[in-house]
Design brief:
Elements: H1 19-32, H2 36-55
Length: 56
């Protein structure tokens, strides 16, 4: 059994993505050479900012 790599600045979680978003996300990661995890960080940050404006 292989040990899971230790994550210091990240938390592993499981989710799912709409089928039509998978390939565009893969393409963007490849084109920009930015890891998908960082692209998802950016998307979640934008989403939280958007909703904070509505609540503020």
């Amino acid at each position: 059994m292989m040990a899971e790599p230790m994550l210091v600045n990240r938390t592993r979680f499981t989710s799912s993505l709409a089928n039509e978003l998978v390939e565009p996300l893969n393409d963007l990661a490849k084109k920009t050479r930015v890891p998908k995890s960082r692209l998802l960080d950016e998307a979640v940050e934008d989403l939280l900012k958007k909703h904070a404006k509505k609540d503020g």
